[in-house]
Structure formats: C-alpha cells, structure tokens
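Progress against Task 2.4 (sequence-to-structure conversion) is shown through the following example record, which the project officer requested during the mid-term review.
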Amino acid sequence: MGLEIGALHVRRSIFIRATPARVWQEFASFKSISAWFGRGHVLHVYEPALGGKVDLSIELGGKRRHYGGPILLFEEEREVSFACNWADADMAWSVPTLWTLRLTQMYDGTQVEIFHHGFERLGRDAADNLEGYEEGWDVKHLKALRAIVET
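Structure tokens generated for the chain above:
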C-alpha cells in the first residue's frame, strides 16, 4: 500500500491531467526523472528498482553535499520511497529520514505528491529539521513534471 507517512513531514503536491501510467513514464529511468526532479539540487544516481540507489546533492557553503540512500519501496505507477541521509559524517543524522514520491488516480488525472518524512525518528532534533525543510521546499519540481506530461 505504500510507506506510512508520519505526523512530521513536508508535503508538496500537484494535479496532472494524465493517467498514473503516463505520469509514471517520467519516473521510469534516470534520464526521464532528471528532466524534472533535478531542480535546486543535482540528481547524480537514480536506479529505478527496489534496492536501487538515489544520490542527490546541493551546494552548501561553497561545498557540494551529497544525500540519498537505497530505494525501500518501488511500486510502478504508484510510489517510489527511499531512505535519505547526508553522506558527510558532519551532517549525517543518527538515522535516515525518508522521501516518498506518490501517484494517486484522481478525477481525470493524477495527484502527484512528494513527501520528506520520518522526522519523528530524529528525536529532539525533529522539530528544527522539519521547520528547515518546510521553509526550503516549493513546487518547482512538480510544475516541471506537469509541463512535461501535459504537453
């Protein structure tokens, strides 16, 4: 059914006028997902399969910082979820958080959601981390996906 999304999460969503099967085509390969998902960060590795790897990076303080992890759930036309932690020991959490990209059939199209979740796992640092990510996220990735799918 999908990974459970806990109470402490960042969520962004968009409605796309296309079937989940059509939207999923943009999740099927590194080339297709990097056309829309690599905005504000760089997507270096995306292995679309259970146990595959996701590696992203952003520039912080003039230094390229990598994050990502293994794909924990891969349900075609429905969901990709992966563990997420910083590669550098000075930034890594004691346990990874989670990212979920979920597609849900709705009306004549698809609701696409991106969640960064699992902050509860960070204990007393959960609230500060959640607030930081909530402030930094927007929907530019999802708008780019919609532009690709609906044209």
